[in-house]
Amino acid sequence: MVKDRAGDNLYQTTGKVDFKDRCRNLNQTGQVLWFTGLSGAGKSTIAIELEKMLIDEGKAVYRLDGDNIRSGLNRDLGFTPEERDENIRRVAELAALFKDAGLITLVSFISPYQEKRDFARQRVGDDYFQEIYVKADIETCEKRDPKGLYEQARRGEIDNFTGISAPYEEPENPELVLDTEELSVLECAEKARDIIIEE
Predict the structure, then answer these.
(1) CB atoms < 10 A from the CB of 162, how many?
(2) pLDDT, tens only, 89-141
(3) In the chain, what are the domains?
(4) Among 88, 120, 142, 153, which one is most buried in terms of CB atoms within 10 A?
(5) Sequence-ordered alpha helix ranges (H) in the chain
């Protein structure tokens, strides 16, 4: 766990370009769509579809995905509750920077704790943050699991696995719920596209 080393000797700089300037330059509003849900619910699949949809429209968009980030930036973190918190803290800070750059940022992380999702909202800014609950029951997620992670977790081979040996807190007031047992990937991506802020 990284301790907060910020002190009185740190001074943030401000430049001659601000958030509105960057958004105007890209002709879009920087924002974050935060996809949360169990492993196998469809977060990454929907975000991939939405990213392609937005790129085809000429939008500047970037996708932050749990496995990809853990393979690089957060490769030093495991899956204890403290490390999960640090994982989401770092991603929230990164997403806030991308939003400030004027990008439409799609974040696909299990992010099991409401407190940390609320932290991400606070860092990004409530007006530019959309929490999307990608909903599927545990049985459906297990059936979809191509890597066999649920089976390994049930055998005790994976510790702190969300939905099996670690909790998942359903979002309290998400901007959008996508039930992937009822909707296709394209339908989910279109519904997510509909809530993107246009100014």
Answers:
(1) 22
(2) 999 999 999 999 999 999 999 999 999 999 999 999 999 999 999 999 989 98
(3) 19-194 (3.40.50.300)
(4) 88
(5) 19-26, 43-56, 66-70, 81-100, 114-124, 138-144, 149-154, 185-194
Whole-Å CA distances, 133 to 31, 167, 175, 187:
17, 15, 8, 14
| Euclidean distance between CA atoms 50 and 12, whole angstroms | 34
Q: How far is Cα 27 from Cα 40, in angstroms, rounded to an integer?
A: 34
Among candidates 62, 44, 168, 194, which has minimal Cα distance to 116? 168
Catalytic residue among 39, 44, 111, 165: 111
- Torsion angles phi and psi, residue 43, rounded to 5: -55, -55
Q: Is 111 part of the annotated catalytic residue set?
A: yes
Classify residue 121 by its DSSP letter: H
pLDDT, tens digit, for every residue of 30-63?
Answer: 999 999 999 999 999 999 999 999 999 999 999 9
Which DSSP state fits 96? H
Cα gap 122→103, rounded to integer Å: 18
Sequence-distant (6+) residues with CB within 8 A of 71 are none
Strand partners, 190: none
- Inform me whether the pLDDT recorded for 80 exceeds 60: yes
pLDDT > 90? residue 186: yes
Q: Which two tokens stand for residue 187?
A: 């339908």
How far from each other are the two terminal CA atoms of the chain, in whole angstroms? 39
CA distance 2 to 161: 22
